[in-house]
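Explain this protein:
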Amino acid sequence: MSRSQFAIDVPDSLVARARSGCREAFEQIYRRFERPVFTLALRICGDREEAGDVLQDTMLKLFNHLPDYRADCPFWGWLRQIAVNEALLRLRRQRRLVSEITVDEDDLPEDRGLPPWAAADAALLQRALDGLPSATRSVLWLYHAEGYTHDEIAALMHRTPSFSKSQLSRGTRRLRALLQIEEPIHA
């Protein structure tokens, strides 16, 4: 399992108290992870209402499966995996993945690497991401922000690594077009 750049530490004692049934400890965990789970779900689903549903489903699973947590991996990594699975499950249920993965290749400029993330205004970038098909947006987010490999993304999305690579390439080209980013001239 890859490690997110947004790792969040949680004291082992807090997890132990929540596992033993302490309601206040679970509420503290909820408050600590509510925003990161919602943000992750929003980036994958592209819709605030869907992200709220994913947050709710993730926290219910957390509550029901907290006794199953093994401390041999970081807590946020374990919870993040639940959130990613819930978000992708929601997308699969809506059949968005199948209907939105086709992109007209003639409309896309040639891919020459990663988009210059730091150069784009955050609001403009969010609008551009929202304009992408959910499968493409999910792959972009999982790869660039969460640090998943193509093999891991393929496994999560029940696809092949080639699917992940092609969605990343298409998404990068489409983002560049949506953000109207010109390619640098190589001397």
Summary: Residues 17 and 154 are 36 Å apart (CA to CA). The radius of gyration is 18 Å. The domain at 97-179 is CATH 1.10.10.10 (Arc Repressor Mutant, subunit A).
